[in-house]
Amino acid sequence: MRSTAAKTESTAGIAPKASSSELERSYHLLRISCWGVALTLGALDAWAARFTMFPDGVAYLDVGDAFWRGDWHNAISAYWSPLYPWTLGFFLKIFKPSSYWEYPLVHLVNFLFYVAALACFEFFLREFIEHTRPGIADVDREIALPEWAWYVAGYSAFVVSALFLITVRFPSGDMAVEGVIFVASALILKIRGGKATSRMFTVLGLVLGIGYLAKAVMFLMSAPFLVVAAAANWRVTGDPKSALRMAGISALFFAFAASPFVLSLSREKGRPTFGDSGKINYAMSVNKVQFFIPEGTSAKHPVRRLAALPRAFEYATPVGGTYPLWFDPSYWHEGIEPHFSLAQQLRMLGLSALTCAWISFNIFLGLVMSTAIFVLYLVAPGIWRCLILARQRWELWIPAVAGIGLYFLVVIEPRYVAALFCLLWLVGLSGVRLPAGTSSRRLIAGIVIALAGTTSLISLWQSSRAARGVEMGEKHIATPICWRLADALRSFGLQPGDKIAVVATWLVPDQEASYVARLARVRIVAEARPEEFWGADDSTRLKFASEVAQAGAGAILAYQPPRSPPGWERLAGSDYYVFRTRPPANGPATVQSK
């Protein structure tokens, strides 16, 4: 009986877990090697992009600061989930970095989230491999991926999802969500394996609740995980009442973890809500409402227009933050309700489908994983058999497909669905069955090794581009220009807490006015579009300067004016210029050193 079981496991593609101490040591060394490569690639990516920043990161930093100084009104955000910004705020409070080191510290935190996600993936992968061991019907004629291949391919899939789709250079809570999804999936695998205890369901509920604190969408995405966990328990025990009771335990502890923030947020907004990010993103992505300056008769808090120029705006009050329009989008979007339009929804569904295809077939995203699966399926005796075997991992692909489907309706970005695609890639690999023989083993080995090598090379290449400052067109981002500009603003006479206006077009990588303002601890309270501002005559520009001065702005910061206009001072030899709207209150500030 024992030899038959061993034969079944071996021919299924994975040797018995404790077949020999030598085999165990080799797998242990393999896991250590995979960890070493994954950590090295993540560290290089974080270091290469240590001075980069994005508008989301500025908002996260502001929210984190508000939390740790006890400013609950600004710390409780209906748009920005709390876990990531509050963690950033903790590290800033502990280390108190200078403006030179603030953005590198953000990327250090991102890397720590990456390490935590890697640990969560290890927990999931070992459970996944344990559940991939059972034999197949025709054991003498077919083989699957051997255990060593699962480790190599699995960690390759993780690197693709974490470093290609999410990246550690973009400040967001998506890496935390990835870790939560891996832990939740591992717990469901344990439940399906017959380890359905009340403690297991308690932990599942708490983990999903933490996921909600990392990103509001997990409030909805937790439902398919709980349903699948209940179904897995029902299938094992055959007792539907027990399955419902256990699912109820998970739901209760999910509510325990999520309710403090939900109640605080609902009290802050004066209405029941678990977050406004979903409806705001729907309005922006599907209904095409403008991101930063939403317009419409239904807006309760329209952004105030200035008279000098057609598209000049002022927003000094009542919202705080470095850039108030993005610090609390829920305030400026209040009253703008998303509405269903068949044409707009169909358009978004089409864009979502194209984005999923782009994720799957872009060489810098998921092409390496998709190619490996397609090649193995194509050389298999029967593609449909592979698909049927993969479909048996329903406890993994159902939540993944449900989560992608939820994003499908609103908007899909690679970082949103990274963990879900990782699960689907592993599910796809679990269906691989090739004819038993040396040639099949060599083919599997060649594809898996090529997968790992290609993934590592692409990651190194992308880190190299980020280090040279050419990633996403950011030609000068590899140098700490934001710190130098913030230092120049201080020497210009601006003090922390002062207000400025900007002449800039947002969401253009070369224009990082809000990143500079964050480091200088000044607030942007008004803006004008470059083409209108520089196309106007001197009297119009002076009128704009007068209006922003009345709003409290002591200076105007502009990027790359078409000429060197009189009265403007160039900052630190860069393409940024500053214009004083009123004399400095306290004179030039002391320059902050590294």
Descriptive tags:
single chain, seven-stranded mixed sheet, two-stranded antiparallel ribbon, 3 domains, 9 strands, 594 residues, mainly alpha, disordered C terminus, globular, disordered N terminus
**Could you list the spans in which at least 5 consecutive residues all have pLDDT below 50?**
1-18, 471-478, 587-594
Biggest sheet, strands in spatial order?
Answer: 2-3-6-5-7-9-8
Write down the overall geometry.
Answer: globular
Determine Rg (CA atoms, Å).
27 Å
Structural domain tally: 3
Average of the residue pLDDT scores: 89
> What class, by secondary structure content?
mainly alpha
Major beta-sheet overview: 7 strands, mixed
| Helix content percent band | 55-70%
Distance between the termini: 69 Å
Percent of residues in β-strands? 5-15%
Contiguous helical run count = 24
Can you put this structure into words, describing what you see?
The termini are far apart. With 594 residues, the protein is mainly alpha-helical. A 7-stranded mixed beta sheet has the order 2-3-6-5-7-9-8, sandwiched between helices. It folds into 3 domains: 1-42 and 120-169 and 277-287 and 340-472, no CATH class; 172-275, no CATH class; 300-337 and 480-594, no CATH class. β2 and β3 (312-314) form a beta hairpin. The protein has 24 helices and 9 strands. The longest helix is centred in the N-terminal third of the chain and has 33 residues, at 99-131. The protein has helices at residues 2-11, 21-48, 55-68, 72-75, 83-95, 99-131, 147-166, 174-192, 198-214, 218-237, 240-269, 277-285, 324-327, 329-332, 342-361, 367-379, 383-391, 394-410, 418-430, 438-468, 481-492, 513-520, 530-535, 538-550, and strands at residues 142-143, 304-305, 312-314, 434-435, 499-503, 523-528, 553-559, 568-570, 576-580. α5 crosses α6 and α8 (174-192) runs parallel beside α19.
